[in-house]
Amino acid sequence: MKKIGIISYNIYGSFTNYGSALQSWALHKTINRLGREKYQSVLVDYCPEIHMDKDILNPVKSMWDQDEESIKACELTLPAIRENYFKFAKFYNGRFNKTKTCYTYKNFNEINANDGIDSFVCGSDTIFCTLEFHGFDHGYFANYSNMRGKSISYAASFGDAVFDNDTYPILNERLNNFKALGIREEKYIPYIKQHCDIPCSKTIDPTLLLTSEDYDTIAEERVIEEKYILLYARRYNQKMFDFADCIAKEKGYKIVDISLRAETLRNIHEPWYKAGVEEFLSLVKYAELVITNSFHGLIFAVQYCRPFVVFSREQADSKIGELLDLFGLKKQIFIDENENYSRDINYNLVHNRIEKARIESISFLERSLEQII
Question: What's the first-to-final CA gap in the chain, in angstroms?
Fold first, then answer.
């Protein structure tokens, strides 16, 4: 059976990134469903060059938030963060068919001999963000010699990348390494179609290719019996935390906080830094309200039909805005804690919109895979 390697931003990404783990798992599962007896996916244990010197068990230096309080919160909760790391490692080792070898720029040309992989899917997440990876990562842009012409991207994102007269020619060259391009956000699609003679489509995030029933197969049972608000911040936002405190006081709910780098040490919050991927799904599924500025926090609130509020977040508003457009829920985004939000969401309509986009994206993925098998 043909093996297709998934190369994505996951194992060596920032700590406690539930979205990066679950988008890879969802793509892995979807490719295997499509492959039947023809092909199967393998998660490539790939470490981009920029992450090779990071110590995941001592993450303070690699945190986005470097304010004094966030650093202190991280240092005080290192035991839970490390427990969380080992849960993530167990997830990657137990939930995937994963390569035996860790690959970097030093040994990537050995992947066919070691693991029998000669076709690749690059994606999802911000793998095309040159700012995040300090340039064009060879794995993410299919630029190793054994990837060129044998790769597609699925839901790849440019994030907040910026190109100029010097880097646009490199971008054009790298994009032409692919046989087909699935892009997560709309912004660069017109440019790609103008400069690349390969199929290109906007595709939904891999986590939306599956349904809540799929995630229930790996989710933990309910881990907190009391009613609670789930607070999940990927970047610190004081207004967001004030809003959560206000709603918790009004409703008499506790706050379960998996924000990691924010103001989570007050008595009103219950830190859940230790939550693994399976526990994260449970925490979302049973929350009375999800308050987040996370792209994937928003997705799983919608997957599980939970009431939610999503706050504005630097470097993420564009992708969150497009996601809310897809859901038809643009009014759910907050700029500050004084706005009103819709507590009632017609999830039948939302999931009908997702299903239409899911059918189109799966069709793109299936057609594209046929070009590299």
Answer: 10
